[in-house]
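User: Hi! I'm working on a homework problem where we have to compare a predicted structure to a textbook description. Could you give me the structure for the chain below?
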Amino acid sequence: MNICIDTNIYSAFKKGDKQITELLETCDRIFIPAVVLGELYAGFYLGSRLKENLRELELFLTQPDVTIINSDRDIADNYGHLFSNLKEQGTPIPTNDVWIAAAAMKVGAKLATFDSHFNAVQGVVKVVL
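Assistant: Happy to help. Predicted structure tokens:
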């Protein structure tokens, strides 16, 4: 199984959440969108453990089963499609989360998150925990 992780999944993993650790251990591939990295970096720079958090993230990213999803034209197109559908449904979600869903859609991975608002996103298989 391929999983695309939301920011809160990485955070839970780093806090030792057993459910998340087990989920990630069963994956063939773990995808992490660039926007998730941006959210993580923002939190690190605002926090008191910058060097430690950066080092731990680097170790995570260098694992052979972890792939960063960089934004490209296909993801931008997915974003536009998802954003407009959500707006038409009257169920907008945070902008970064639309980008995360668009990235998961691009690679065909299930999206792991704790955020239930992702349930409004059509076309992405969610694992809302």
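For your comparison, note the following. The radius of gyration is 14 Å. The domain at 2-120 is CATH 3.40.50.1010 (Rossmann fold). Good luck with the assignment!
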